[in-house]
Design goal:
By secondary structure, the chain is of the alpha/beta class. It has helices at 30-38, 42-48, 86-103, 118-136, 163-191, 199-210, 223-229, 232-238, 292-306, 352-363, 379-385, 397-410, 443-452, 483-493; strands spanning 2-6, 18-23, 59-63, 72-79, 107-111, 155-159, 216-221, 246-253, 262-266, 268-272, 312-322, 333-336, 342-345, 370-375, 390-394, 414-416, 434-435, 460-464, 470-471, 477-478. The chain folds into two domains: 2-164, Leucine Aminopeptidase, subunit E, domain 1 (3-Layer(aba) Sandwich), CATH 3.40.220; 184-493, Zn peptidases (Aminopeptidase, 3-Layer(aba) Sandwich). Strands 7, 8, 9, 10, 11, 14, 15, 16 and 18 form a nine-stranded mixed beta sheet that branches. A six-stranded mixed beta sheet has the order 1-6-5-2-4-3. Strands 12-13-17 form a three-stranded mixed beta sheet, with helices on one face. Bound molecules: ligand BES, manganese (II) ion and zinc ion (ZN). The site of manganese (II) ion (MN) has 5 residues, from loops. Ligand BES binds at residues 272, 290, 347, 349-352, 376-380, 382, 437, 443, 466.
């Protein structure tokens, strides 16, 4: 998609479709009013009929307006004026742009709904770009006859209120596009089924991403190399699979040489059947999404490269399948992790922590400033937070606050759960240093407690994205989360947001 920011009067702007916001009290935005005045009150006359109430997400197409250079005008409902923010702007634009994509307008011009304020403009354009990219995203790689849109939306313009907003908007469009590159990549990898998206495939995609990019390097560790490092926990999971495990490492060197990197560690379980502790059949297909943490890490690194972010960032993705097999982990098995700590595997379906713990120990060698791991780790997190917020747990309050703020700011939210020492005893084992499950209560927290035993060497946060990484039901598909959150976190760290 091409984005541009423009100045000018709304009635003379040439476009296939001019989008104009209306609040739910029937009030037009300032630029909407300007347009209406230039059009002799034609829009207000439509609003008077009250077919269109301005509810969030509602749209109304107007044709053949006199003295208007746009081929059509689309009114978009912005909801309550008092509650209006970048999130509602995105929510208003998503259905509107989907409708445009279907109707065959190849370009459109969005009138900005705010008065002159740079950081609001930055946030609004970021949200709009996110909505536009979501509106046109399709995953048709596995259809024998893909049906691409005949006249796809190709150009989105923003009509800005003033000259200084122009700069803010242009920067926002750039950032928004880079985030979209990352989210789309994460979605594509995640939507691909387990028979195609194997650990080896994920590794190849990481290598392809790094190909030809001076600041990006991909390294893939084989099972033999992991064995040498003592990754007995990770390798115990892949023993039950015909596909070899891979440890994917992406190094993005955009920052000053020697400046400590941010490390992102993502669970890349390309299919989780549960192993010997096998899962029920219903919806098991969705366990192809158990690599969404890894996809999020690869996507975020892609976003960093797309915006030439001036930071050093490391991505580490332990990738494996979890299947039942004669050689698979059995309940009661005890394995030794790279850290030397031993683990009693009481449930083979709690495999994410088993591959992550070794990847986290491995990450120590990069001397990271902070480490964030991202994983579809527990069904309990869906029970706790649903599909709205990712679960956040951390051993450092400042890091946790930074992540929470980044999430709130970009609308890809997280919510913190406690990681009190008292929970740790749920992992006691009679036979090993720890068990891999913590009993009925606080499943999301005890999973994080397990990981915390491997992250003592650094500032660390854990994001459980079990509820946010994909949607089920009719809308089944990857969301690309938490690429926006992680990229926002990095942008703020680089002091590049407005
Ligand atoms: N990948 C699953 C978690 C999951 C389940 C995410 C459903 C999204 C939807 C993870 O490997 C798992 O199976 N966790 C178990 C842990 C339990 C055995 C302690 C779970 O949540 O049931
Ligand atoms: Mn599992
Ligand atoms: Zn899993």
């Amino acid at each position: 998609m091409q984005y541009s920011c423009k100045l000018g009067s709304p009635n003379t702007a040439k476009t296939a479709c001019l989008l104009v916001g209306v609040f739910d009290n029937g009030q037009l935005t300032p630029m909407g009013k300007t347009l209406d005045e230039a059009l002799d009150g034609q829009i207000k006359r439509v609003l008077k009929r009250q077919d269109f109430a301005g509810d969030l997400g509602q749209t109304q197409m107007l044709y053949d307006l006199r003295d208007c250079a746009a081929q059509r005008v689309m009114l978009i409902g912005l909801g309550a004026n008092k509650r209006f923010d970048a999130g509602s702007f995105g929510a208003a634009l998503l259905p509107a742009l989907r409708q445009l994509e279907k109707s065959g307008s190849t370009d459109c011009l969005i009138t900005m709904p705010n008065a002159a304020d740079d950081d609001t403009s930055y946030r609004l354009v970021r949200a709009a770009v996110g909505a536009a990219e979501s509106a046109v995203y399709r995953f048709e790689r596995c259809k024998s006859e893909p049906k691409p849109s005949k006249r796809p939306l190709k150009k989105v313009g923003f009509l800005m209120g003033g000259r200084s907003q122009l700069k803010a908007g242009e920067r926002a469009a750039e950032h928004g596009q880079a985030i979209a590159v990352g989210s789309s990549l994460a979605k594509d990898l995640a939507n691909l089924p387990g028979n195609l998206c194997t650990p080896s495939y994920l590794a190849e995609q990481a290598q392809a991403l790094a190909q030809g990019k001076r600041k990006l390097k991909a390294t893939v560790l084989s099972e033999a190399q992991m064995k040498k490092l003592g990754m007995g926990s990770l390798l115990s999971v892949s023993r039950g699979s015909r596909q070899p495990a891979k440890l994917i490492v992406l190094e993005y060197k955009g920052g000053k040489p020697g400046s400590k990197p941010v490390a992102l560690v993502g669970k890349g379980l390309t299919f989780d059947a549960g192993g010997i502790s096998i899962k029920p059949a219903a919806n098991m297909d969705e366990m192809k999404y158990d690599m969404c943490g890894g996809a999020g890490v690869i996507g975020t690194i892609a976003a960093c490269a797309a915006m030439d972010l001036p930071l050093n960032v490391i991505g580490v993705v332990p990738s494996s399948e979890n299947l039942p097999d004669g050689d698979a982990n059995k309940p009661g098995d005890i394995v030794t992790s790279m850290s030397g700590q031993t683990i009693e595997i009481l449930n083979t379906d709690a495999e994410g922590r088993l591959i992550l713990c070794d990847a986290l120990t491995y990450t120590e060698r990069f001397d990271p400033a902070v480490v964030i791991d991202i994983a579809t780790l527990t069904g309990a997190c869906i029970v706790a937070l649903g599909d709205q917020a990712s679960g956040l747990m951390a051993n450092d309050d400042k890091l946790a606050d930074d992540i929470l703020e980044a999430g709130t700011e970009c609308g890809d939210r997280a919510w913190r759960l406690p990681l009190w020492d008292e929970y740790q005893k749920q992992l006691d084992s009679n036979f090993a240093d720890m068990a891999n499950i913590g009993g009925r209560g606080a499943g999301t927290i005890t999973a994080a407690c397990f990981l915390s035993r491997f992250t003592k060497a650094f500032k660390w946060a854990h994001l459980d994205i079990a509820g946010t990484a994909w949607l089920s039901g009719k809308e089944k598909g990857a969301t690309g989360r938490p690429v926006p959150l992680l990229t926002e976190f990095l942008l703020r760290r680089a002091k590049l947001t407005l």
